[in-house]
Amino acid sequence: xxxxxxxALPDLIERHQKQLLDDWLxxxxxxxxxxxxxxxxxxxSARFLTELRKGAATGRFDDIEAxxxxxxxxxxxxxxxxxxxMGFTPSxxxxxxxxxxxxxxxxxxxxxRGSAEKLVDEIWVATLLLDKLGLYTTExxxxxxxxxxxxxxxxxxxxxxxxxxxxxxxxxxxxIGTLDSARTQIVMENLLQQIVTxxxxxxIIDITGVPTVDTLVAQHLIKTIxxxxxxxxxxxxxxxxxxxxxxxxxxxxxxxxxxxATMADAFQLALRRIGKSVAGRAKPSRTAE
Amino acid sequence: xxxxxxxxxxxxxxxxIQVDMHDRLAMALQDDLTRKIVESRARGVMIDxxxxxxxxxxxxxxxxxxxxxxRVLDAVTVVVGMQPAxxxxxxxxxxxxxxxxxxxxxxxxxxxxxxxxxxxxxAVDRRxx
Lengths: 289, 129
Prior knowledge:
The complex is a heterodimer of chains A (289) and B (129).
Chain A: H1 9-30, H2 39-57, H3 70-85, H4 90-98, H5 101-111, H6 116-159, E1 164-167, E2 170-176, H7 181-198, E3 202-209, H8 215-231, E4 234-238, H9 242-251, E5 258-259, H10 263-273
Chain B: E1 6-9, E2 12-16, H1 23-40, E3 44-48, H2 57-72, E4 76-80, H3 84-92, E5 101-103, H4 106-117, H5 120-128
Helix pairs in contact in B: 1-2
């Protein structure tokens, strides 16, 4: 059981809340924090002081993850989130909390005049607490950013794997970007689903946009092709660039599937397989005999 | 004991799997089917697994075995209507069923069997060059 520190902090904040808030706001202004003059910042600062007082009154200085600090954490979540979306840097976000130190410490010095030992104790308690809270804002900021990145990645995955119908019974799957396991899974699911809904018998997988084909990518391709074959659809690979053809041979990969150099060739083959052909329109009259 | 019906359409046999396959049922199906092929002198076997939502490696291998057995008895096997999830599972299990012909649905499966029996496959290959 951690020792409950004897501190005058909650009492001090309560008595001098107004003055502390003014000092803190001017401190934020002078430290060049963005939006220090916003009414929003003022409101957040006032609420933070209140929460800090309530939290400090419970005496749980050792652990800001404790339920006593739940409302404080919520407030910091909100502040951090708002600042992250407004384009603040992590240090600017953390400064919101850290800038409270100076006004708080000078207040402590005023109050604890004549008792150096007590002053050091109080400052130690306050600095530990504010450090933790400041770091917490950075953590939230980071988490926020990671969420954004994860969401973008997901969207990118969705965007980059379209399955298009070229003709009745012929699907095309233009792959762009590197094929990793997660993407292969999505590509495979999309393709198979589309095969079911459209009843297509031939799928052309175009790898023009795949930068490199190593053994792993080749294996993913083979998996996709095997799954499509199990459903009853044939695959043709197209868009193999000269370097990639060389790599495939050097790696000793056997794709064991019909491949064509360009999508046009693959499309022609696909048409032939389903018994269709493209014919040029006959000219109305001959110009030269 | 439940039994999977084997229907005869011309010189083809149609097996439609509508229940969850368990191992003993699979073994019984192999027995029944091989007997039926010999009895009816069928040239083609179509296995419809569109209602099958779960496969394990045993069922996967059974499909492969049935295809191999029919081949020995001079009948072609076409598996039709595989669900996407099933296809992905089989591939992940490493069972590509390379010896089995596949088609999207019963209609296309019948057409494929006809083509295979009539020896049209060679002609298609020659055309593709």
